[in-house]
Design a protein that fits this description.
Elements lengths: L1 H24 L11 E4 L14 E3 L4 H5 L2 E5 L5 E5 L3 E4 L3 H10 L1
Antiparallel strand pairs: 1-2, 1-5, 3-4
Helix pairs in contact: 1-3
Protein name: P-loop ATPase fused to an acetyltransferase
């Protein structure tokens, strides 16, 4: 039983450290619940910019979405517009989103 408490304690320390780093980068201020991610299902013509089966953060852009496209942060670390049908939406928990934002 003590071992489980120890693991939970370490996990909580890691989450607190992640939150601190996110706050320092200004990411923690964003509404994590509204942050969306997609998975790449087609990278034809964009092999250098997109990796198949990788998760990408969506940058909301109504004008782009109205044209059938999507704005994401790609492999360059910058946001670019791609055809929306190259991606599928995924549902993630808040904790997973925080972890993904920490490493990106």
């Amino acid at each position: 039983m003590a071992e489980i408490k120890w693991r939970n304690y370490i996990g909580m320390k890691h989450m607190e450290l992640a939150k601190k780093k996110l706050k320092e980068r200004g990411i923690y201020k964003m509404n994590i619940n509204k942050t969306k991610f997609v998975v790449c299902i087609n990278n034809e013509g964009y092999q250098a910019s997109l990796e198949l089966h990788k998760l990408y953060q969506v940058i909301p852009d109504k004008a782009v979405e109205d044209d059938g496209d999507i704005r994401i942060i790609d492999e360059s670390g910058e946001d670019y517009i791609y055809p929306a049908f190259y991606f599928k939406k995924v549902s993630l928990t808040k904790d997973v989103k925080l972890l993904l934002l920490k490493v990106s």
